[in-house]
């Protein structure tokens, strides 16, 4: 007669099966939708469709190790390796959280409620930064389990989760771990050789991955992208152009106009005269943007106030109530670090970025549960009720938001049927990437468009935009041809383009044809050079 599985093994198996079945059921009844177009772009780059002429592991926002990983995963029923990896990560997070909370003394129902609370929205609206942060949160839970039970598999699981978190989005991993410093079981991790070996392996793996990533991007064909990427974030992410506009003498000195800065700040990099890293750096140095922003403090407080944005209110309320019900100095210190971190992000010009805040709220929610699992705590019924209500309300809100986006996407797809397809230029979010390329889209859907993208990937090797530019068919060249160029863009983008035609190309902007269907707009534009 076969020996029964040890308790820990049964718990692992039960957690994995429960989370896997729940994820499959949710995805089958509510087909996921990417929360932002970042994942769409990286999936295109990884597998060579849409705006990518061929596949590449250089995903820009994630480490090249993660890029190789998703490319090695075989397609399942037409679903790409990038998508399979995305949902495998969420299953791993859910399994680790459920097992971890059970091991810390909480019941299966409370642990399952926490998993529902943390994962319903990321499953319905997956986003790589959120996934990276949630892996770090799961690693913190596992480290506390190891501190109590000294289970070696849990220690190595936490190391694996931290490594993958850093591969998917290193900035978010570092942010979550910085805020989680008071929650880590430092004494337990300092005892024995196993934790030292585990973290030595982690450190070596992270260094090796960083070196591989550096090697992947130091090739000559990446020079143009690298040079621009070092400075463009100040304009696209941190609003440097708004400050430079108030200093016209600096613009005149470097040969830029307010319209030029509007173009650069909205991801127009097709003209090397505008997307000139040296000139952009020189203007930033002249204005002292990073050090002398006059609204820095106000922006910092805006970042803190953004914690109360509608999408975070349930998480914030649940974390606050659990902190009151289960008071702990380590949890209080974590709150202070979190507030300081979001204030600093606002101070630097990035307040209120939801995908960055979601894992921090998840960390604050589970933090009180790390130290109050055992025994008969007199407030356990209230804690359980708080978690249950938060899970139900959070899931209800996530499903409602998902339904609204599904309706919007269905409308966008209907509208696109009457607009051009095939090869077309797309500028920013004017093209409904998330509607056209949902996670579970088929290869036939992915091959409908060949996209010349004006955005972060404009100068990335092996993209359609880069190949066309190198073949003498760059966007600026197409704009000046007699037949013009078809482009998906917003009205404001097209207005900036018309001014660009007049100012930079010394031509006359012409609108040759317009397709408009609901909120979707495509236009064939030409810039006729004046003799």
What does this protein look like?
- The protein is α/β, with parallel strands linked by helices and 531 residues long.
- Helix content is 63%, strand content 7%.
- The protein is built from 25 helices and 5 strands.
- Helix 4 packs parallel to helix 6, helix 6 packs across helix 7 (152-179) and helix 13 (258-265) packs across helix 25 (491-503).
How would you briefly describe this protein structure?
This protein has 531 residues and is of the alpha/beta class.
How do the helices and strands line up, and which of them pair or pack?
Elements: H1 7-29, H2 37-47, H3 64-72, H4 81-103, H5 108-124, H6 128-149, H7 152-179, H8 186-190, H9 193-217, H10 223-236, H11 240-244, H12 248-254, H13 258-265, H14 277-287, H15 289-292, H16 296-305, H17 313-325, H18 329-347, H19 354-366, H20 380-416, E1 422-427, H21 433-436, H22 443-446, E2 449-454, H23 464-470, H24 475-479, E3 485-488, H25 491-503, E4 507-517, E5 520-529
Parallel strand pairs: 1-2, 1-3
Antiparallel strand pairs: 3-5, 4-5
Helix pairs in contact: 1-4, 1-5, 3-4, 4-5, 4-6, 5-20, 6-7, 6-19, 7-9, 7-19, 10-14, 13-25, 16-18, 17-19, 17-20
């Amino acid at each position: 007669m076969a020996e029964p599985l040890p308790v820990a093994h049964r718990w692992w198996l039960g957690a994995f099966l429960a989370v896997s079945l729940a994820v499959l059921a949710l995805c089958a009844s509510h087909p996921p939708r990417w929360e932002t177009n970042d994942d769409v772009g990286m999936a295109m780059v990884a597998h060579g469709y849409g705006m990518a002429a061929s596949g590449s592991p250089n995903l820009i926002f994630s480490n090249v190790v993660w890029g190789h990983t998703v490319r090695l995963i075989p397609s399942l029923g037409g679903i790409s390796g990038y998508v399979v990896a995305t949902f495998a990560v969420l299953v791993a997070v859910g399994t680790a959280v459920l097992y971890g909370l059970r091991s810390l003394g909480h019941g299966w129902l409370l642990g399952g409620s926490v998993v529902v609370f943390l994962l319903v929205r990321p499953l319905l609206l997956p986003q790589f930064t959120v996934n990276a942060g949630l892996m770090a949160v799961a690693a913190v839970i596992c480290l506390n389990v190891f501190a109590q039970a000294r289970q070696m598999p849990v220690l190595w699981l936490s190391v694996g989760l931290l490594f993958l978190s850093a591969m998917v989005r290193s900035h978010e991993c570092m942010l979550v771990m910085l805020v989680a410093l008071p929650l880590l079981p430092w004494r337990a991790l300092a005892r024995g050789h196993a934790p030292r070996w585990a973290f030595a392996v982690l450190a070596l793996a992270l260094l090796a991955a960083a070196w591989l990533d550096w090697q992947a991007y130091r090739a000559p064909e990446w020079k143009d992208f690298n040079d621009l990427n070092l400075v463009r974030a100040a304009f696209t992410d941190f609003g440097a152009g708004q400050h430079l506009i108030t200093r016209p003498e600096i613009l005149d000195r470097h040969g830029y106009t307010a319209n030029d800065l509007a173009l650069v700040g909205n991801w127009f990099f097709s003209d090397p005269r505008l997307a000139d890293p040296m000139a952009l750096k020189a203007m930033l140095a002249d204005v002292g943007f990073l050090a002398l922003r006059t609204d820095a403090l106000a922006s910092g407080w805006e970042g803190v106030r953004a914690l109360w944005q509608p999408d975070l209110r349930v998480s914030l309320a649940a974390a606050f109530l659990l902190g009151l019900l289960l008071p702990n100095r380590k949890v209080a210190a974590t709150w202070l670090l979190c507030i300081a971190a979001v204030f600093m992000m606002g101070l630097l010009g990035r307040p209120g970025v939801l995908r960055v805040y979601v894992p921090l709220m998840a960390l604050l929610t589970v933090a009180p549960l790390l130290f109050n699992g055992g025994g008969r705590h007199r407030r356990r019924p209230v804690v359980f009720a708080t978690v249950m209500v938060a899970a139900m309300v959070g899931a209800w809100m996530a499903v409602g938001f998902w339904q609204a986006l599904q309706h919007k996407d269905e409308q966008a797809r209907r509208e696109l049927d009457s607009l051009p397809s095939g090869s077309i230029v797309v500028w920013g979010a004017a093209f409904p990437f998330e509607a056209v390329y949902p996670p579970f889209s088929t290869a036939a859907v992915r091959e409908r468009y060949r996209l010349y993208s004006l955005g972060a990937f404009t100068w990335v090797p092996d993209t359609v935009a880069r190949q066309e530019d190198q073949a003498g068919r760059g966007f600026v060249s197409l704009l000046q041809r007699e037949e013009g160029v078809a482009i998906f863009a917003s009205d404001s983008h097209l207005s900036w383009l018309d001014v660009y035609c007049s100012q930079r190309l010394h031509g006359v902007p012409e609108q040759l044809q317009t397709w408009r269907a609901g909120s979707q707009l495509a236009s064939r534009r030409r810039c006729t050079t004046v003799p």
